[in-house]
Amino acid sequence: MTNIKDMLVILFPKSDTVDIEYVANIIEFKCQNFGLNTPLRVAHFLAQVREEVGAELKPISENLNYSEEALINIFKAFRNNPELADKFGWDEDTPIADQVKIANYAYANRNGNGAADSNGDGDINEDDDGWKYRGAGALQITGKGNYIEVQKRIDKYIVGNSVNILNGKDIHTLKGSILAAAGFWIWKDIYNDADLGTDSYAIDHVTARINKHTDSYSHRREHFEKIKHLI
After folding, report:
1. Which domain of life is it from (predicted)?
2. Burial group, residue 149, by CB count within 10 angstroms (0-12, 13-18, 19+)
3. In angstroms, rounded to a whole number, what is the distance separating the alpha carbons of residues 156 and 152?
């Protein structure tokens, strides 16, 4: 698939040549077994990654620097416990929110994560599940259960694999970020949606599999259109 690098150059104009080459090699030599084995599938994959990470190829993770008001509006845990929103969210007196504690409470007892107060003593979960398994990777995987399923695919499809996204570090590297996205891709059989074609129907199907309730459907179609001619 000689067009991977060209697709990356178009979609990620803020990336340097080294990162473009690095990611192109990962996709071409590591991701074939994840179902990223045709130009069409790769184009769909990269269009989705572009929307998630932006114009530069870099690891990103969920930003949880929310105000007290935003925490109450967004997360049920804080809506039901506004005193925690006041304690952990930013305000005029506290310019930066406590993102670790926010993640642990917001994502407690969800997607395989443990409780925020695991010992019943008022202390945050010592494993920091919410924070450790917050949204990350090139397709923003969230929750310990999802991380585990993706890691299973990485271990299965990469011989001699050295990436472990469960350690709280590898998913925040460029290689780990891309491989986590590829693992999610094959876990959810998204290649089947990609094979529907190049029209809006196919692109929207892929988007819905990755983030059904996103408001970025049109942006993801635009990204795909930019590289459609390289398929």
Report:
1. Bacteria
2. middle
3. 6
Q: Distance between CA atoms of 11 and 208, rounded to whole angstroms? A: 20
* Closest C-alpha to 139, from 114, 165, 161: 165
Query: Looking at residue 155, what is its pLDDT?
Result: 96
- In the chain, where are the structural domains located? 4-59+138-230, 68-132
| Tokens at 89, concatenated | 């969210």
Measured distance CA(227)–CA(44) in Å, rounded: 9
Give Cα 31 distance to the centre of its chain.
17
Between CA 1 and CA 224 the distance in angstroms is 17
Q: How far apart are CA 138 and CA 109, in angstroms?
A: 24
pLDDT tens, N- to C-terminus, the chain (231 residues): 679 999 999 999 999 999 999 999 999 999 999 999 999 999 999 999 999 999 999 999 999 999 999 999 999 999 999 999 999 999 988 899 999 999 999 999 999 998 886 444 445 445 789 999 999 999 999 999 999 999 999 999 998 899 999 998 999 999 999 999 999 999 999 999 999 999 999 999 999 999 999 999 999 999 999 999 999
Q: Cβ of 102: how many Cβ atoms within 10 Å?
A: 27
DSSP H helical ranges for 61-143: 68-74, 76-79, 82-88, 99-106, 129-132
The C-alpha angle with vertex 119 and arms to 127 and 62, in degrees rounded to 5, equals 35
Alpha helices per DSSP H over 31-98: 39-53, 68-74, 76-79, 82-88
